[in-house]
Amino acid sequence: MDKSKNNSAVSALKWTSALQVATQAFNFTVGIILARLLTPEDFGLVAMVLVFVALAQVFSDFGLSSAIIQKDNDPTPRDYSTAMSFSLLLGFTVASLLYFCSENLANFYHQEKIALIAKYLSLVFVFNSLTSVPKAKLSREINHKLISMAEMVSSVVAMVSAIALAYLDFGYWSLVAQQVILALLRLLIILRFSRLPIRLKFYSANFKPLFSFSVYVFLTQCLRQTAVQSDKLVVGKFLDSASLGLYTRAYQLMLFPINNISRVLANVMFPVMSKMQNDKQKVASVYLKVVRSISFITFPLMLGLMVVAEDFVVVIYGEAWRDMGVYLSFFCLIGLVMSIATITGSIYLALGMSKLQFKINIINQPLQIIGFLIGIQFGIEGLFIGYFTAYLLSAMITWWNAFRILEITYTKFLLALSFPSVASIAMVIAMLAGESYLSDYVKENYMLLTQCVIGAIFYGAATISIQPKAFNELKNTFF
After folding, report:
1. Residue 467: left if φ>0, alpha if ψ -120 to 50, beta else—which one?
2. Most buried of the four, 10, 25, 293, 337, by CB within 10 Å?
3. Cβ neighbours for 126, distance < 8 A, ≥ 6 positions apart
4. Residue 45 predicted with pLDDT over 60
5. For residue range 178-189, what is the model confidence (pLDDT) as tens digits?
6. Mean pLDDT, to the nearest integer, of 423-452?
7. Which residues, including other chains, have CB under 8 Å from residue 441's CB and lie 6 or more apart?
8. Region of residue 356 (phi > 0: left; psi between -120 and 50: alpha; otherwise: beta)
């Protein structure tokens, strides 16, 4: 990576990380407030519709934003106009389908309230379809500072609005309003930052080269979203809205460090690696560095949270959410793998191998769905086992192909994970030993804090004494 690209990447990483952490910290805090004002049933009702919103959202972009980012030459005004026109057409189409099929959705879940929720949430597709191309322009320019600022401002306003409505006893409608306000504000701010005019004119000559790349991104996203949302669909259909509320809140809590670390780095690295797509050795070097950095932070967070999950949920969310502790412990194991598997997709996109990525996902995503369907036959515990087994197999298939392309050996990959793996497992043992020894001396209310302090001191001491490569890389990058 030459000096200018390196400086751009580091600057983008710093700004994106800072703003993303600030946004997610605010969202996390507000999420706790909303959880105390609302019930698991409220979250479950909205989550039932958001399953289909997430599935249909793929159609609002069709992978054109990734095609804009990956394009070898700078996109022309005609490229942007074509991509935006097509995205908006898809957005209106999907919004109309959700609106007119809302009654069928209510019948599927046997919940009459679902119909009206779906009609209002259909607006999200129109707003998001207009956001994708201007956002892709900013991402291509490695201007993640502005993207993060847009996300932060829109999230803050949407969350504050949701709290106000929840306090006024609007129930689940506060969550619906949050989604609509978030999508609308993000659109307005991204449009202003990108300075990309809304030109809705379609040029077939410009569409063909974009389509040749985006179609496989689109098909891959379809498969992924189907797999990602199918577990929630299964829980909502076969269990109840309260169980789905607990399930989705635990999943979102697990995603907190993933969104702040893995996806931040993946979003920054995709355009950077796209610019060096002809040098696979450099791409491999960047990938291993990112894996080291991510695992150094996420492994102790995930394993530590798994140990204190139930106490954490009760202290943060309240006694009404105690049953969420079991869900959270499971998702921490998934998060361990997800944190380092998420970024692998950036390799295929950066190297222009969207077709290969699609072929891999033809195997991976149905595998996960099969795991859900088999697992649910044995209850929620069976779903957990099926989910984890299928996701781990999918990750291994993805890694095998990525390593083959970049000529990375498994030894190099495992070495990148060696310190965080060993140190995190030792940290967990120290936390459990501390709980066993101190349980007679420390009050129950303070045990969570005590275990967190033990874990932080142990992992911090191991880091300072061993000085792993990831620690020095992160220190040099940010300071």
Report:
1. left
2. 293
3. 88, 91, 92, 95
4. yes
5. 999 999 999 999
6. 84
7. none
8. alpha
Say whether pLDDT at 385 is over 80.
Answer: yes
Residue 1 pLDDT > 50, yes or no? no
pTM of the predicted model over 0.85:
no
**Burial track 120-155 (b if 16+ CB lie within 10 A, e otherwise):** bbbbbbbbbbbbbbbbbbbbbebbbbbbbbbbbbbb
- Eight-state DSSP code of residue 75: P
In a 10 Å sphere around its CB, with 0-12 CB exposed, 13-18 middle and 19+ buried, how is residue 317 labelled? Answer: buried
Q: Which pLDDT tens digit goes with each residue over 55-67? A: 666 666 666 666 7
Tokens of 258: 């993933």
Q: Would the pLDDT of 16 be above 60?
A: no
3-state percent breakdown (helix, strand, coil) of the chain, nearest 5? 90, 0, 10
Amino acid occupying residue 222 = C
250/325 Cα distance (integer angstroms): 8
Name residues whose C-beta falls within 8 Å of residue 232's C-beta, 6 or more positions apart in sequence: 47, 51, 244, 247, 248, 251
Closest CA to 428 of 257, 309, 335, 326: 309
Q: φ, ψ for residue 447 (rounded to 5)?
A: -65, -35
Residue 177 Cα distances to 26, 158, 167, 184, 232, angstroms: 18, 8, 13, 11, 21
Q: Which pLDDT score is estimated for 37?
A: 87
CA triple 372-378-380, angle to 5 deg: 65
Taking the alpha carbons of 433, 437, 438, 440 in that order, is the dihedral positive or negative?
A: positive
- Ramachandran bin of 195, using left for φ above 0, alpha for ψ from -120 to 50, beta for the remaining angles: left
* Higher pLDDT, residue 302 or 152: 302
Rounded distance between C-alpha atoms, residue 36 and residue 295, angstroms: 32
- Least confident span in 84-88, 235-239, 241-245: 235-239
- Looking at residue 150, its amino acid is A
Residue 422: its pLDDT value, please?
92
Tokens of 242: 């309260």
Do 1 and 272 form a contact (C-beta atoms < 8 A)? yes
